[in-house]
Amino acid sequence: MIITIGGLAGSGTTTAADVLSKKIDIPFISAGSIFRDMAKEKEMSLIEFSKYAEDNTAIDIELDKRQSEIAKNSENLIVEGRLSAYFVEADLRIWLLAPLDIRAKRVSNRESKSLEVVIEETIIREESEALRYLDIHNIDINNFDIYDLVLNTNRFNPDSIAEIILTTLKVI
Predict the structure, then answer these.
(1) Which residue ranges are tagged as binding site for ATP?
(2) Number of domains in the chain
(3) Which distant-in-sequence residues (6+ apart) come within 8 Å of 12 by Cβ?
(4) Signal sequence: where (predicted)?
(5) Which residues sit in the known binding site?
């Protein structure tokens, strides 16, 4: 079984993928870890590589290709990444969302930054990414038609989110 989990920063994708992976005993990969591997390959820091990727669409395309290839060679896998559902043949495609203020609080706690700074950075990042996804892949990140399950993580803890996903798996 191949499952994709996507969502904006702070929506809980990595945590959900990790908890679900442990509950059903299948591995997960994240687009973020693949991106970090690509930075190491170029002998760049993550910040340097991120700046490099902003002006180099080949990085996004390679990231998407690597996710797809890993999934093709896997029988059971959870693939976590914003655009994974578009590039991975999946049995279940999930999109997690949460209000900006909730996501910003999560990121603020995770990165030890002020809430105000995180909100500002998040808005800028999301606007930039939305334009990039549309330009590079013709993907509207705000269109959820491709997803089998769209879940607002605001009121659920990670175990509850995993249970909702498990319940969904039973009916597909």
Answers:
(1) 7-15
(2) 1
(3) 96, 98, 106, 153, 158, 161
(4) none
(5) 7-15
